[in-house]
Give the backbone structure.
Amino acid sequence: MRANELPEVRHLPLFRDMLQANFEQLMQGAYAQTFPTGVELIRQGDPADFLHIVIAGSVEMYAEWGGRTCTMAVVQPVGSFILAACIRDAPYLMSARTLEKSRLILVPSSDLRAVFRRDPEFAVSTITELAGAFRSVARHAKGLKLRTSRERVAAYLLKQSRQAGNVESFVLGVEKRLIASYLGMTPENLSRTLRQLEGEGIRVNGQQVTITDRHRLMAVAPPDPLIDGPDGPGAGVGMSLPPPSTASAKPREKVVSPTGFEPVTH
Amino acid sequence: MRANELPEVRHLPLFRDMLQANFEQLMQGAYAQTFPTGVELIRQGDPADFLHIVIAGSVEMYAEWGGRTCTMAVVQPVGSFILAACIRDAPYLMSARTLEKSRLILVPSSDLRAVFRRDPEFAVSTITELAGAFRSVARHAKGLKLRTSRERVAAYLLKQSRQAGNVESFVLGVEKRLIASYLGMTPENLSRTLRQLEGEGIRVNGQQVTITDRHRLMAVAPPDPLIDGPDGPGAGVGMSLPPPSTASAKPREKVVSPTGFEPVTH
DNA sequence: CGTCGACTTGAACACTTTCAAACAAAGTGG
DNA sequence: CCACTTTGTTTGAAAGTGTTCAAGTCGACG
C-alpha cells in the first residue's frame, strides 16, 4: 500500500474518529490492489470476506436475477462498499465490477468486526455510516415506487445540477445505459424520455446536459430532500464525491464530474 | 408502562445484550401508549425524536410524494422502527400509522444515542440491527427493479407460505390494497394478477391462499435468498414475526398470521 | 337494513419493453 | 493514418404491461 493513500482512508467518516492504534491494525491486515476495467470484484451470493474501499477509479454495484441485471449504485473515491454484508458475515447482496482502471483497499471483514467491538468511536462511526446507507437505499426505493420514470429522470438531472453547484450545464459522467438501469428503465426508454424532456427545460448533447428552464423542470418533478437526499455539504452520506465542476458548453472536454449515485455500504 | 411488557422489549435483538443498568435507564425515559386504529404516529419530514417499538397491534410505514402514497413496510410486535433516523438525528423518511389498535413504546432518540456511546454491546447490537435493515431495503429495491409485478406477487406468496412453515394454505393477514402498494402496483393490478396466477398453481378465496402446485409457482418466480430473504430461523432480521400458523381452509377464522413485510429501522 | 370500504371486473388509455435497424464514437490493428 | 470492429446511443414499430376510470359485488359494521 502506498504511503499517500493512507491519509485519505484515515479521513473517511468511517475511520476518522477511531484510535490510531486500531486504524493501524486494521490497515495491517488490509491490502491494496489495482484492477483493470471490467473486472468483477465481488459476485452476489459470495461470502463477505472484505470491506472494499475505492481509492481511485470507479466501481459499479449491480444486482442480477433470472438473467436480468440492474445497476444499484456507483462508488467513487474515496468511498467504501459492502459494509453491511461484512458486519453480518452474510453473502453479498450485490455484485461489483470496475468501470475503469481502479485502485482498491481490501480490509478483512473479521478484523472489522473485531475492532468495532473494542473501539467505541469506531462503533459509533459504523453506526452512523450504516444509518446513512440505510436512508440512501430507502430514498432510492421511494423514488422507484412514488415517481414515474419521467419524473425520476427529471429529478436525477436536477440533483446532478445541484451537486455540481447549481450549475446550469454539466456532464453526465457515466454511460447513459448505466443511468437508465440505475433509474429502473431501459436505455431506449431513457433516450426517449430525455428527448421528451427537451420540451420541458433541458437540452442534451451527448454527455452534456444544459438546464434551460429550471422552474419548468422542477414542475415535472419537484425535488424532495426525503427522496433526492439532503441539501448542503456532506450530502453524499459518508461518500466523498469528486469536487463538482461546472462543465463547459463545449462537448468532448475531459471534466471530472459527479455521478450522483447513492453510496452503498452493501 | 406495564410490568409484563418490559421482558418482551428486553429480549429484542436490539436490547438483549446490553447492560441491565443501561436498559433500565433507556426505559426510564421511555413511555408507553396505546393508540386506536388509523392514528398517524409520525409524519415523514418531522424530526426524529423517538425510537418506536410496537408491543401490540401493527403499524404501517408509508411514504408520500406529490399526492401519491405507497406502503414501505408493516411493523408487528415486537419490532421497532425509525432507528436510522434517530441515530442520524435526521427527519423521518417515512410516515407511520396504526393499522389497528396498537400499543407502542417510545424511547427518546437522544437517550439512545447517549447509551450506545458507552455500552459497547448495545453499539454492536445497533450495528447488527442497522446492517440487517439495510439489507432488507436493498432486497426490496432489487425486487422492484429485477422482477415484474407478476413475479413479485408469486414470490410474495411463496415467501408467505415459507414463513408460515412451508404450509400449502395460509391467510394473507393484511389488506390486499396494502400488499399491492407494498409490491409497487395498484390494487386492480394485484387483483388481476392473482386471478391470472390461479392458472399457475394457486387458489385464492378472499384472504385465504392455497398453493396447489408449488413447482409451477416457483417456475413463475424462482425464490432467491438475495431478494426474498434468508431461509431458516431468525429470517426476519431483527424482527419477531408472530408464530407462523397453518391456516384452516375455512375463511373468516381469526388466525394470527405473518405479514411477510420487511422490517424497518427507519 | 343500510352504509361504507375493500375488492373485483371491464374497457380504454398510457407507458414501457422488445426487437430490429441505423448511427455515432472510441478503440484496434494493419 | 486509415479501415475496421466494437460498443453505446438513437429511432421506429409492434407487443406487452400497467394504470385509470367507471361500475358493480361483497362483506363488515353500526
Q: What stands out?
A: The domain at 3-139 of chain A is CATH 2.60.120.10 (Jelly Rolls).
